[in-house]
């Protein structure tokens, strides 16, 4: 009897079950929602991308994240072709699943902010945040190059003064 109950509430996902913690599995296959304001990323404001915890599929970008009103990581858009929608037991919502591994990541409703008016409420336990490295950014690369040039210039000056001070 327990087994039937369990099967009725678990979804087929393309992830090795043993690689997941019970909490992660409950979210990914059981369509669970973590308790609001307990996740790692609901307040995260850093620059980077949010990947699927299980298959590394890129799901969201930092520039579509906005201040959370529900205690989940909230976005107004996803990265194209990264997710799929499924019917939810609540009429006004849809379940959001990763297109890569089918695991459940969160809820979608249609009372979000402009420009899309879509609200993605995502479980932090289904996400893995990757910080954008400064080395990848052209602006910071330019600054680093200028600093290196200034150092080289100083060294040349120093060597010139050193070698000519004996004269
Ligand atoms: Zn995935």
UniProtKB/TrEMBL annotation:
It holds the Pfam family SelR. It comes from the Eukaryota. Its main location: cytoplasm. SUPFAM superfamilies: Mss4-like (SSF51316). It is found in: Cytoplasm, Cytoskeleton; Nucleus. InterPro entries: Met_Sox_Rdtase_MsrB, Met_Sox_Rdtase_MsrB_dom, Mss4-like_sf. It catalyses: [thioredoxin]-disulfide + L-methionine + H2O = L-methionine (R)-S-oxide + [thioredoxin]-dithiol; L-methionyl-[protein] + [thioredoxin]-disulfide + H2O = L-methionyl-(R)-S-oxide-[protein] + [thioredoxin]-dithiol. Its cofactor is Zn(2+). GO terms for molecular function: L-methionine-(R)-S-oxide reductase activity; metal ion binding; peptide-methionine (R)-S-oxide reductase activity. The keyword Oxidoreductase applies. One of its GO terms (biological process) is protein repair. Keywords: Cytoplasm, Cytoskeleton, Immunity, Innate immunity, Metal-binding, Nucleus, Oxidoreductase, Selenocysteine, Zinc. GO terms for cellular component: cytoplasm; cytoskeleton; nucleus. Residues 13-132 form the MsrB domain. Belongs to the MsrB Met sulfoxide reductase family. Methionine-sulfoxide reductase that specifically reduces methionine (R)-sulfoxide back to methionine. While in many cases, methionine oxidation is the result of random oxidation following oxidative stress, methionine oxidation is also a post-translational modification that takes place on specific residue. Acts as a regulator of actin assembly by reducing methionine (R)-sulfoxide mediated by MICALs (MICAL1, MICAL2 or MICAL3) on actin, thereby promoting filament repolymerization. Plays a role in innate immunity by reducing oxidized actin, leading to actin repolymerization in macrophages. This is MsrB domain-containing protein.
